[in-house]
Structure formats: C-alpha cells, structure tokens
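REQUEST FORM: STRUCTURE PREDICTION
Request ID: SP-0412
Submitted by: Lab K.M.
Chain count: 1
Length (residues): 60
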Amino acid sequence: MTVTVDAGRCIACGMCAYTAPEVFRIVGNASVVHAQPKSQSSRLRDAANGCPVNAIAVRP
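STATUS: Completed
RESULT:
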C-alpha cells in the first residue's frame, strides 16, 4: 500500500495526523507521510476520507 499527500492541496488541518499519527505528520504548511504503512488499517482509510480537501491518496 502506498500513501501520498498532495502538498498543493493540503491545508494542514491536522485531521490525518490526529487519525493516523503513525503515518502522517504536519510539517510547515502541509501534511507529510513520514512512514508508509505496513498494512491497511481502517484508521488510514478514515484519515484519507476525512481530509477536507481530498489531498490524501491511498493506493494498493
């Protein structure tokens, strides 16, 4: 599974980092993926679905 964040769309609201702190961190004005997940989790999907600007992509 690969997770990416579109920094151009991200508004750094922090919802992803709150939902899945093992994957996301807020750095400056955007969220970044600091560790690719080892397995799919519902929290990762919740983080992607909860992004208010749809900046997170989760691919198998």
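NOTES: The chain is about 25% helix and 25% strand.
Reviewed by: T.R.
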